[in-house]
Amino acid sequence: MSDTANNPTDARIAEIVNGNDVVLFMKGTPLFPQCGFSSRAIAILDHLGVDYASVDVLQDMEIRQGIKTFSDWPTIPQLYVKGEFVGGSDIMMEMFEAGELAQLMAEAAVKPAA
C-alpha cells in the first residue's frame, strides 16, 4: 500500500478502510449499483448477511483513481475486511462459492447486518 502521509487521498481511503469492518468501493450504491460487477459484489455481501459500508467511486474521482493505487488493484469494485484488501468481484465470487468468504467474515467476527 502507498504512503498515506504524503497523499491526502490515500489518507482518506485508509480512514475509510480502517474505520469499517467491511467496506466495498463500488460503482453506484447498494440500492442502485452502476455496473454488473458491483451488483454481483453487493449480492454476495447481502447473501452473507454481513454489515458493510460502501463507497460510490463515481461520486469522487480522487477516490476512484486513488483506490486503484492504494490497493495496487486496477479494477472496481474492491472489498476490504478488517483493513485488509480481499479482491474484486471475481475473487469474491470464487471465495463465496468455495465457502471461504463466509469463513473469512466469521473469523474476522464481522457483525451481521442490522
TrEMBL record:
The residues covered by the Glutaredoxin domain are 22-86
InterPro entries, per this entry? Answer: Glutaredoxin, GRX_PICOT-like, Monothiol_GRX, Monothiol_GRX-rel, Thioredoxin-like_sf
* Gene3D superfamilies recorded: Glutaredoxin (3.40.30.10)
Q: Does the keyword Iron apply?
A: yes
Show the CDD domains listed in the entry.
GRX_PICOT_like
| Matching PROSITE patterns | GLUTAREDOXIN_2 (PS51354)
Give the keywords, sorted: 2Fe-2S, Iron, Iron-sulfur, Metal-binding, Redox-active center
What family does the database annotate? Belongs to the glutaredoxin family. Monothiol subfamily.
What name is this protein filed under?
Glutaredoxin
